Amino acid sequence: MKRKQIAIGLVAVLVLGAGGWALWSRRAKSATTDVTYVQQPVKRQSLRVTVSGTGPAAATNAVVMKTTQSGTVTKILVQDGEQVKAGQVLFTLEN
């Protein structure tokens, strides 16, 4: 009976010691992971951003145009790269 009480007491001391050590180590880790902030004075400056790049450019919609008559183009009514709408006259033909 006495042996059993000593064993239970020894286990209780070990469990309490392990719990205390776990709490102590957790507090030590959280103290070292604090974030330090450095304050800097505010300055008025100009903001400049430069973007550059290369690559092919293509229209999202391309249309092949065919006429029912042959002839010579006499006037082109749009500029290169200009957006056009459906039904808009683009050029005139003379046959």
Folded structure, characterized:
With 95 residues, this protein is an alpha+beta fold. It is 33% helix and 9% strand. It has 1 helix and 2 strands. The protein has a two-stranded antiparallel sheet with strand order 1-2. 0% of the residues are buried.
Chain oligomer state: single chain
Helix proportion: 25-40%
Tell me, rounded to a whole number, the average pLDDT: 82
Low-confidence runs: none
Morphology: elongated
- Give a short account of the largest sheet: 2 strands, antiparallel
Number of helices: 1
Question: In percent, how much strand structure appears in the residues?
Answer: 5-15%
- Compute the CA-based radius of gyration: 42 Å
For the biggest β-sheet, the strand order reads 1-2
Topology:
Elements (H helix, E strand, L loop, with lengths): L1 H31 L39 E5 L14 E4 L1
Antiparallel strand pairs: 1-2
Task: Report a brief summary of the structure.
The protein is an alpha+beta fold. About 35% of the residues lie in helices and about 10% in strands.
Name some characteristics of this structure.
alpha+beta, two-stranded antiparallel ribbon, 95 residues, elongated, 1 helix, 9% strand
